[in-house]
Amino acid sequence: MSNGISEVVSRTVVLRERNIDTDQIIPARFLTTTERKGLGRFAFNDWRYLADGAPNPEFEFNKPANAGAAILVAGRNFGCGSSREHAPWALTDLGLRAVISSEIADIFRSNSLKNGLLPIVVEQELLDELLDRPGIELRIDVRDRRLHLPDGRSVQFPLDAFAQTCLIEGVDQLGYLLRQLDAIHVYEQRRAAAHQESPQEQVHAR
Question: pLDDT tens, 72-92?
Answer without folding.
Answer: 999 999 999 988 999 999 999
